[in-house]
Amino acid sequence: MLRFRAVLTASIAAMVMVASPAVSVAVSADPTTSAEPRTTNDAVQRVLDRAVSEGGAPGILAEVKNGAGRWFGTSGVADTSTNRKPVSYDRYRIGSTTKTFTATVLLQLVGEGRLSLDDSVEKWLPGVVQGNGHDGSKITVRQLLNHTSGIFNYTNDAGVLAKLVGQGFLDHRFDSVLPQDLVRTAMGHAPDFAPGTSWAYSNTNFILAGMIVEKVSGRSLSAEVTRRIIGPLGLGNTYLPGKSTTIVGPHGRAYSKLMTGDPAAPVHDVTEMSATWAGSAGDMISTAGDINRFYSALLGGRLLRPAQQKEMFTAVETVNWIPNTGYGLGMIRQKLSCGVQVWGHGGTIHGSLSWSMGLRDGSKVASTNINGDWVDQGGISTAVMEATFCPGSAAGAGAGDAAGSAAAVPATRPLQLS
Q1: Which of 151, 180, 343, 344 is the most buried if burial means most Cβ atoms within 10 Å?
Q2: How many other C-beta atoms lie within 10 A of the C-beta of residue 111?
Q3: Where exactly are the structural domains of the chain?
Q4: Is 345 left (phi over 0), alpha (psi -120 to 50) or beta?
Q5: What is the rounded CA–CA span in Å between residue 260 and residue 63?
């Protein structure tokens, strides 16, 4: 029988924000997604059904893009008060999937000769990365994007965690935070290691990356993401919320046990919240269809020049993180049980667990989102990917049991917001 494990612990290696001004975007449902597809995908649908019936998810959705074909499926509800079902144009907070957008914009600037991946952080943000052993002159832009900088993850700071977990989150959920303050928090701690000598996931890296985009371009990160990615790809349901605390446009509700790790904790509706603590590391809002379109274009080589494409997909092995993964520049490489390698990113933020992966050529991509943050994100998301990309294998055929696969998140690993 399927056993989706709860993996939340009281310790959170969370993520945080750059508060860039939001740019106006279309708020109506994308007409290309307003009619629900009628195709079938039994293997993925079984995973969705069991995520709700056995995994405890309030609701879950998934969309698969295979060439010009598209499948969308759901289980459970988008709103527990009305029992409304999820629909394909429902927007949700994508958490750390934002990191791929930030990295893509930065790599486009590199391709235009505006900066180099070998530039030091100090060159672009003088005096910002200093103190307690941090030295921005010895850390490169590349090391920010592949998490080899050693910079302390500010969401591991006790004061930050106190505002992200339990009653502290409810007390501070509408607070607005500046990126400079988040970096200063990180600088109050010693580095995890010397630059380039190991690997550790740090949201501070992508707060700094967003700050560099703004310094190099002279525009807000929101403006650059909109101008370079959202507009050209027609991602009409995707935007950076800035200081806004609502989700604009069609959306379900987001439910949270406040990251306490207590299975008996009460459930709270956290749909409205400030995600300024997530910013360039994870504050974006989108839909499964838009995310699939983005990754299809990126993986297919339509957003970056060849040199920068090669850099993005040059991965280092992760350390004490998700098994069978590597990390490129804002891009996770995941090896599934059938041997297929897929690329993309995931996101964890209060009330929203998401995961998006695609084949290296972008010919097939899949995205899933769960609107409850206490379930086994690693097991469920991996099961969706196994069913999508390994349909002929034993794991793909029985993907509902993939919670125990090699790529599932161990119960001992702290949850990472965004």
Answers
A1: 151
A2: 16
A3: 37-404
A4: beta
A5: 30
Please report, as a single letter, which amino acid is at residue 287. T
Query: Maximum CA pair distance of the chain?
Result: 57
* Whether the predicted pLDDT of 155 surpasses 60: yes
Choosing from 20, 75, 96, 202, the catalytic residue is 96
Pairwise CA distance, residues 73 & 20, whole Å: 34
Confidence of residue 36 (pLDDT cuts 50, 70, 90): low
Residue with tokens 């209060």: 350
- Per-residue tokens: 17: 């924000």
Beta carbons of 199 and 142 less than 8 angstroms apart: no
Specify whether the backbone of 241 is left (phi greater than 0), alpha (psi in -120 to 50) or beta.
alpha
Closest to 213 in 3D by CA, of 109, 97, 130: 109
Instruction: Report the chain's mean pLDDT, rounded to a whole number.
Output: 88
* 96 is a catalytic site residue: yes
CATH 3.40.980.10 fits 37-404, yes or no: no
The two structure tokens encoding residue 143: 């090391």
pLDDT for 392 equals 75
- For the entire predicted model, the pTM comes to 0.90
Residue 352 DSSP label: E
Pairwise CA distance, residues 411 & 395, whole Å: 20
